[in-house]
Structure formats: structure tokens, C-alpha cells
Amino acid sequence: MKEEDNILKKVGKENVFRVPDGYFENLTSEVMSRLPEKETPAFIKKEPTKWERIKPWLYMTAMFVGAALIIRVASADRTPATDQIAMDDTETTEVVSDEYISSVLDNSMLDDYSLYVYLTDASVE
User: Fold this and answer.
1) Is the pLDDT of residue 20 over 70?
2) Contacting residues for 68 by C-beta, under 8 A, at least 6 apart
3) DSSP structure class, residue 25
4) Reduced to 3 states, what is the DSSP secondary structure of residue 41?
5) Looking at residue 84, what is its pLDDT?
């Protein structure tokens, strides 16, 4: 603590860095006077090229084609019509013996009406 007091006595508490009087009052005008004069170019209106006119339409078309492809790929329930026709032609029925049906019905916990509704709804589709 004593050493700090000695340093403060030698240096003092005043700010030793000073700016000359009136420095900031003339700063802007002096800086502007030192800059070289620069001509501002006049705006030249040019006709847009064919590509510049077509580009937005081309980009928009590409966006819609991309969106259509994404929707087509993302739809999981889509099956081609040719596959459905082939599936209808090769439809097969399997014969199941009555003993398996009776054991399944006993364990299915369906009453008679629920079984009737299930079987009639399945035949409609």
C-alpha cells in the first residue's frame, strides 16, 4: 500500500493524455479537404439480356418440377397402375381347413355379431 502511495505522489491522478484545443471542431473539414475529388459516374441504364429475362422463369419452373418429383417420391401409398392390374390377374385363394378356423375363432374373443360384421366388411372390399 505504501508503494502505491509513493507512485501516486510521483505521477499524480491527472490524465496525461490530452487532445489539442479545437481539434475535433475542424477535424471533418480537414479530412474532407485532404481527400481527392472523385467524379460520381452517371447511372447507365442498360437493357437486360435475354438470359436475365428468362432466368427467373426457368428457376421457377425448376422449382415446381423439383417439388412435383419430391411429392411423387415421398408418397408411399402410390403403386403403379400396371402393378395393380398384374396383382388382380394373379389373385389366388388359399383353402384353410375347418379345424384351424374353429380354433382361431375360439381364441379370437369375437362374438357372433362382430364376426359377422368383420366378414361382411371384408367381402365388400
Assistant:
1) yes
2) none
3) T
4) coil
5) 56
- Cell 372390399 sits at which residue? 125
Is 66 a residue whose pLDDT tops 90? yes
Cα 46 from Cα 52, distance rounded (Å): 12
Q: How far apart are CA 118 and CA 111, in angstroms?
A: 11
Distance, in Å, from the CA atom of 6 to the CA atom of 21, rounded to the nearest integer, reads 32
Cell of 62: 425448376
* pLDDT single digits (tens) 70-108: 988 888 665 555 555 555 555 666 776 777 777 777 777
Find out whether 72 and 78 touch, Cβ atoms under 8 Å: yes
Angle at 42 between CA 41 and CA 45, to 5 degrees: 125
d(CA 97, CA 94): 10
C-alpha span between 18 and 9 (Å, rounded): 20
